[in-house]
Design brief:
The complex is a heterodimer of chains A (238) and B (58).
Chain A (H helix, E strand, L loop, with lengths): L2 E2 L21 H12 L2 H4 L3 E3 L9 H22 L1 H4 L3 H31 L7 H23 L4 H16 L11 H30 L17 E2 L1 E3 L5
Antiparallel strand pairs in A: 1-3, 2-4
Helix pairs in contact in A: 3-5, 5-6, 6-8
Chain B lengths: L1 H9 L8 E4 L2 E4 H19 L11
The chains are: A mainly alpha (238), B alpha+beta (58).
Chain lengths: 238, 58
């Protein structure tokens, strides 16, 4: 097995500088900054390090797939409306798909979190990657909470009345009144999904930018990503 | 329809939930089952070998 002494981000050459005639344009500056930060072959790589050949590395993408199902089923529910998801059998089915994709989302995300915690995945200048994951998790909790408040049943009434005093004691009740169904629905279908998608998208981009954190080095001489195993095609041994 | 009836026969979801009390800790059986499942999947993900292409080394 050969050893690559650079991080994945360092092994990719920087993008070419802008042409002098276009360098003053903000579009050119943004384009070249984006190309420099996220080269296409780094955004969608064909090869991954050998240490990724483990089941513990699949839970991040399982979380993303679950989130995609949450958004897709949520869009269907928004298009068809409450009279559909409360009454028709197809509406019940899609409503259940929405619920269970959320369950899968949190199930996979927590296992992903445990795996990354015990890998100390913030090593090697990956602090922002870790922080965006934590923030995404917290915003997701809020999105799920407002989803429970939007069920329009006794369960949502019970949850909202149990939560109101705690949330109002923080002062957040002025803009986040759990007894206001319309406001909670808007938080659930507009603000919080936008937040989750933006932060999770940034999280994935940062993972691509800095690469997957390598395992701890044997003997405790950890270089936190400065020593990397040679990339091999996904699923293929080194 | 049949599958739903079959699953419904296995686990009766009607009625009030079941809770476990241990000192000041109170948790529903459903939540405890999910946590145990997550721990089990986490341990299996670490222990189970990842499939490799035939003819590979290691």
């Amino acid at each position: 097995m050969s050893i690559d002494t650079g991080t994945p981000a360092e092994t990719i050459p920087p993008a070419a500088p802008p042409h002098p005639s276009e360098s003053h344009q903000w579009t050119a500056k943004v384009r070249h900054a984006a190309e420099s930060a996220f080269p296409p072959d780094q955004l969608l790589p064909d090869r991954q390090p050998a240490y990724m050949a483990s089941w513990i590395y699949v839970f991040g993408v399982l979380t993303v797939v679950s989130l995609a199902w949450v958004i897709i089923t949520g869009c269907v529910l928004a298009i068809m409306g409450p009279s559909w998801w409360h009454v028709s059998s197809t509406g019940h089915f899609v409503n259940s798909l929405h619920l269970w994709s959320v369950e899968a989302f949190f199930f996979f995300m927590v296992i992903h979190l445990w795996g990354k915690f015990f890998m100390a995945a913030w090593r090697g200048n990956r602090r922002l990657t870790w922080a965006t994951g934590v923030i995404s998790f917290l915003v997701s909790v809020g999105a799920a909470f407002t989803g429970y408040l939007s069920q329009q049943n006794f369960d949502s009434q019970w949850i909202s009345t149990q939560a109101k005093d705690g949330i109002n004691s923080t002062g957040a009740g002025a803009v986040f009144n759990v007894l206001n169904f319309g406001q909670m629905l808007m938080w659930h279908i507009v603000l919080l999904p936008i937040g989750v998608l933006l932060i999770a998208g940034l999280h994935v981009l940062l993972v691509r930018r800095h690469g997957i954190v390598p395992p701890f080095a044997e003997g405790g001489d950890d270089t936190a990503g400065t020593v990397d195993t040679a990339p091999t095609p996904a699923g293929e041994p080194a | 329809m049949f599958l739903g009836a079959l699953l419904g026969a296995l686990i009766n979801l009607n009625g009030s939930g079941r809770y476990i009390h241990w000192g000041f800790i109170q948790i529903s059986v459903a939540n405890l089952v999910v946590i145990v499942l997550m721990v089990a999947v986490f341990v299996l993900a670490i222990l189970l070998p990842f499939p490799r292409r035939k003819g590979g080394g290691q």
